[in-house]
Amino acid sequence: MLAPSTPSAAPASAFPPASYPIGTPGQPWGPAEVAQWRARQVRQRSYAQDVLAVVDTLRERFDVRSYGEVAYGDDRYALQSIRPRQWAAGRPTVLVTGGVHGYETSGVLGALRFVQEHGERYAERVNWLVAPCVSPWGWERIQRWNHDAIDPNRSFRPGTTVQEPAALLALIAPLQGQFAAHIDLHETTDTDESEYRPAVAARDGKAFVPGTIPDGFYLVDDTENPQPAFQKAVLEAVAKVTHIALPDEKNELIGSPMTEPGVIRYELTAWGLCGSATGARYTTTTEVYPDSARTTPEECIAAQVAAVCAVLDFVLGQQAG
């Protein structure tokens, strides 16, 4: 998920010097540059095949609902949510989101895997709600931004006109005040440094400052509502599956101070991050590094699933206590 315009944490020399091929250095993009950028985006995978087909297999066991549509020209994507049929008042409610950044593969597949393998185990104890792929246009093009070169994960604000966050906010609006927790599933990839941060700098007319990428799994807590015990519980579960990122020589991860092992904090509401959407007491954003030589795509998915289960277990433990 990247802190905006701040250096991160594996050597900057691992990435080539960035010079983005669109725009004039020092000048923010206008409509022509956005159109030029959009023309470079190629559909590389299928939302219908990768996401909707999997969701269809879950309909017999769970309550699957459409919560809107993302439409860009002739491209139309039905947004799907999944929840238990046993939804009941008095149980803790937990939101699980994946694919807010469409290119972050294990977040989408991890959200779906959780439902497939563990959804029934929690169905009579937790009102879990899963939105597995918030940004389907980005999923198909393996792209961080949406069709309009906007980062959906800087757009979760009241009254937003950005389609992806607006649809999710409408989905959860009837449940506001009920959420105990929200886990938002993300990745930090080498392309964050080689493509997306240079693109952000070019789009905004700013200089690109090379940074680094943490090797391993880490979490993002909320500066305004830190919950260290909650973050620790999630990391302890994930550490059984994959390695946790270590800080750099400044005791930072991706340009932010590490507040506890494997944890940094962002101002979720001020930045318009998805993690601020529910106002839940317990929120976390996962970040796994799929390009690490020490992991595999399957391990990254398993780590996301472990994190979701840990969140639900923690919430249930708090309720029992």
UniProtKB/TrEMBL annotation:
The active site is at E287 (proton donor/acceptor). Residues 43-315 form the Peptidase M14 domain. InterPro entries: Peptidase_M14. Pfam families: Peptidase_M14. It comes from the Bacteria. Belongs to the peptidase M14 family. This is M14 family metallocarboxypeptidase.
